[in-house]
Amino acid sequence: MSKRYHRFKLRTDRQLQNGEYAIMMVVTKYGKRQFISLNISSTEEFWDEHQERLVVFKGLRITEKREANEKRIKENALLERYNQRALDIIYEYEKEHIDWTLKQFKDSFLNRIVQGKVKPFLESFIKTMLDTRHIGTAKSYEKTLRVWQQFDKKLHDRLFVEVDLAYVNDFNNWLIKRGCGGNTRFGYLKSVKAIFVRAIRDGAATKTNFPFENNLFNVSELKEETIKRYLPTEYLQKLKDTPSQVPQQEFARQLFLFSYYTYGMSYIDLANLKQSNVVYLEKGTYIVYRRQKTRNTRNSKPISIRITPEIDGTMQAMNQYREPIGDYLLPVVTKEKPTPLEHYNHIGMLQRWYNEYLKKLATELEIDFRLTGYVSRHTMAMQLQENNVPENVISQVMGHKKLETTKVYLDSLKTDVIDKAAEVL
């Protein structure tokens, strides 16, 4: 071992209640320090800074002093065991060529779970997302973890230091062989990058082997332009004018139109709307909400949508189908669930039914188009464009590449600009 990373120090800047000072292990690497408490203390009188041990004497006759001396001898033996433990840990790191972090060392020294391992770190992050009600994020990372484990059978023992450029390239090539397109690979590897960045921030990994540094592996290059599916005007008009003869499909039609008129509001957002989201302002009545997808991001802004006669009409039609439960604004959610995860899964099940009814609705109305809930968003954008709504307005409404990725739909538009855009829908 070429270098010693740890020392034993008397922490004289912080006096304990008994008048002594704590003896700490100080681990230093890359100019940074980590203090580890050893539950041993001493006065300056009995600490040998050069030897990094407690001072002991021979031939003491006074009982009190002899007992204190015996205590220091035992504590020195304990310090020696701590010293050997630290040396063994560093030796193992060097043998395995692990560019360890201070946090990794501390966790190993205190016999904690090694946080430098990929899978435990990712599982801990997923649990945190679930506990903080970021259900969609948790689900996304759970999917990445499942695929990652299929690629790497030893992921449970894999350290972040091993996830280098060659490893990521192998993962990408494995996904290609499985038939994954660019956008699918972008999703998985974006999650890998994000969890690596978080691990670096939390001290569980270092930038030394970061495979995405300086675009060594450029995740963004995987992303492909998707075909934007929007209803042609004649189909949109038929959808607006033609009620379904099947109650469930009529409900789906009204919900699709509600989403269209509210600038392509996502299913999870419209399902979670509450009565409190209706706000009465000087210029009219508005639905004001924050998108589930971005509500916890920095600079997230509420979206304000004036309730037009068209929006009100779809709400009234849906309420005739069935009344909303609790304080929900729309009759989408059918049962109150006890946990956020169960609530999220309930909405996911309802969304699958919704898309199935839209498919049947298209057949009934002879609309030769693959109708899904997401189509409302692109159809709305195309209608704005065809009606000469300024491009910058559409860009802000839709969150195109010209804006930051988190600023989508209506995040930065003023209410009066939105109102004018609504007039052409």
UniProtKB/TrEMBL annotation:
<dbReference type="GO" id="GO:0003677">
    <property type="term" value="F:DNA binding"/>
</dbReference>
<dbReference type="InterPro" id="IPR010998">
    <property type="entry name" value="Integrase_recombinase_N"/>
</dbReference>
<dbReference type="GO" id="GO:0015074">
    <property type="term" value="P:DNA integration"/>
</dbReference>
<dbReference type="InterPro" id="IPR025269">
    <property type="entry name" value="SAM-like_dom"/>
</dbReference>
<dbReference type="InterPro" id="IPR050090">
    <property type="entry name" value="Tyrosine_recombinase_XerCD"/>
</dbReference>
<feature type="domain" description="Tyr recombinase">
    <location>
        <begin position="226"/>
        <end position="423"/>
    </location>
</feature>
<dbReference type="InterPro" id="IPR013762">
    <property type="entry name" value="Integrase-like_cat_sf"/>
</dbReference>
<keyword id="KW-0238">DNA-binding</keyword>
<dbReference type="GO" id="GO:0006310">
    <property type="term" value="P:DNA recombination"/>
</dbReference>
<dbReference type="InterPro" id="IPR002104">
    <property type="entry name" value="Integrase_catalytic"/>
</dbReference>
<dbReference type="InterPro" id="IPR035386">
    <property type="entry name" value="Arm-DNA-bind_5"/>
</dbReference>
<comment type="similarity">
    <text>Belongs to the 'phage' integrase family.</text>
</comment>
<dbReference type="Pfam" id="PF13102">
    <property type="entry name" value="Phage_int_SAM_5"/>
</dbReference>
<keyword id="KW-0233">DNA recombination</keyword>
<dbReference type="Pfam" id="PF00589">
    <property type="entry name" value="Phage_integrase"/>
</dbReference>
<dbReference type="Pfam" id="PF17293">
    <property type="entry name" value="Arm-DNA-bind_5"/>
</dbReference>
<protein>
    <submittedName>
        <fullName>Site-specific integrase</fullName>
    </submittedName>
</protein>
<dbReference type="InterPro" id="IPR011010">
    <property type="entry name" value="DNA_brk_join_enz"/>
</dbReference>
